[in-house]
């Protein structure tokens, strides 16, 4: 596979789907200009995230899109030979899911429905049930959404399924209960980076973490998009403002090097875990 350029986005997206699509098109072009083969857009890049996480208003939820939505088809067309991960609200008939799709000009390469939910989100979305990696032209990818990265089992499940790259799509806000005067001092800003680095290091994989920026309703999003190497080192990052973090990584070589002496997956002791 050789060296790969991976891009992770920090940007704002709201309810206007046509505006979101214009922004996605611009980001794809910028990523292509930087030579990126993989672009990870934030959670809810189509339609925006919830405006209130504690008490979501059922009348102002993100627009629900079918799995075969023309918007996803269009993003694949725009992607061409790039691989693009994007988050959206999936219409599944009686329920909706906080979902992600991985697309290219060849169509949908993989799908994921968010498994772990903070309490308020259960009003708006049903929970997904499984973690599965999938093959793409840039390597084997596993996707996580938001709160999933808090749970080591999420990333570990994908790594055990052969994922070389974890695409973590987020609409991760500042602390709702104890907001700091400066975003860099916010508890959630520290945890967001901590989880990204820990999930990459403990599984010895490459991780691309996207996030929303700006505000929606009562929510203020952190940004902090980044690409993390299999040793937990941040290879490229944005801060709180919009931008694209781009890093050049020889994914398989870096993973092989990280696992050469200590291979965390191979040295697990499942029989001792409860």
Question: Which properties best describe this structure?
Answer:
single chain, 274 residues, alpha/beta, Nitrilase/N-carbamoyl-D-aminoacid amidohydrolase, eight-stranded mixed beta sheet, 5 helices, globular, hydrolase activity, C-N_Hydrolase_sf
Walk me through what this model shows.
- With 274 residues, this protein is an alpha/beta fold.
- It has one domain: Carbon-nitrogen hydrolase (Nitrilase/N-carbamoyl-D-aminoacid amidohydrolase), CATH 3.60.110.
- Helix content is 22%, strand content 30%.
- The strands form three sheets. Strands 1, 2, 3, 4, 5, 6, 11 and 16 form an eight-stranded mixed β-sheet that branches. Strands 7-8-9-10-14-15 form a six-stranded mixed β-sheet.
- Strand 4 and strand 5 (95-104) form a beta hairpin.
- Helix 3 runs parallel beside helix 4.
- It is globular and about 55 Å long.
- The model has no long low-confidence stretch (mean pLDDT 96).
Topology of helices and strands:
Blueprint: E1 3-11, H1 17-33, E2 38-40, E3 64-65, H2 70-79, E4 83-92, E5 95-104, E6 107-113, E7 134-136, E8 139-145, H3 152-160, E9 165-169, H4 187-203, E10 206-209, E11 211-212, E12 215-216, E13 219-220, E14 226-228, E15 234-237, E16 243-250, H5 251-258
Parallel strand pairs: 1-2, 1-11, 2-4, 3-4, 8-9, 9-10
Antiparallel strand pairs: 1-16, 4-5, 5-6, 7-8, 10-14, 12-13, 14-15
Helix pairs in contact: 1-2, 3-4
């Amino acid at each position: 596979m050789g060296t790969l350029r991976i891009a992770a986005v920090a940007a704002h997206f709201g309810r206007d789907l046509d505006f979101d699509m214009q922004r996605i098109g611009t980001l794809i072009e910028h990523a292509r200009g930087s030579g990126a083969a993989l672009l990870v857009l934030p959670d809810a890049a189509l339609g925006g995230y919830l405006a209130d996480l504690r008490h979501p208003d059922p009348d102002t939820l993100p627009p629900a899109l079918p799995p075969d939505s023309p918007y996803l088809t269009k993003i694949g067309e725009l992607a061409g030979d790039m691989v693009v991960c994007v988050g959206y609200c999936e219409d599944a008939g009686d329920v909706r899911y906080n979902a992600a799709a991985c697309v290219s000009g060849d169509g949908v390469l993989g799908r994921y429905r968010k498994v772990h939910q903070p309490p308020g989100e259960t009003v708006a979305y049903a929970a997904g049930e499984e973690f599965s990696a999938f093959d793409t032209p840039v390597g084997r990818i596993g996707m996580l959404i938001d709160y999933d990265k808090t749970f080591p089992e999420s990333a570990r499940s994908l790594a055990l399924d052969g994922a070389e790259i974890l695409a973590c799509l987020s609409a991760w806000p500042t602390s709702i209960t104890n907001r700091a005067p400066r975003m860099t001092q916010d508890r959630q800003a520290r945890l967001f980076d901590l989880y990204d680095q820990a999930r990459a290091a403990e599984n010895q994989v490459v991780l691309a973490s996207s996030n929303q920026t700006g505000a929606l309703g009562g929510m203020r999003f952190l940004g902090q998009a980044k690409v993390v190497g299999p040793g937990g080192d941040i290879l490229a990052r944005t801060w709180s403002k919009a931008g694209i973090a781009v890093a050049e990584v020889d994914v398989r070589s870096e993973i092989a090097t990280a696992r050469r002496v200590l291979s965390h997956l191979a040295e697990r002791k499942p029989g001792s875990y409860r």
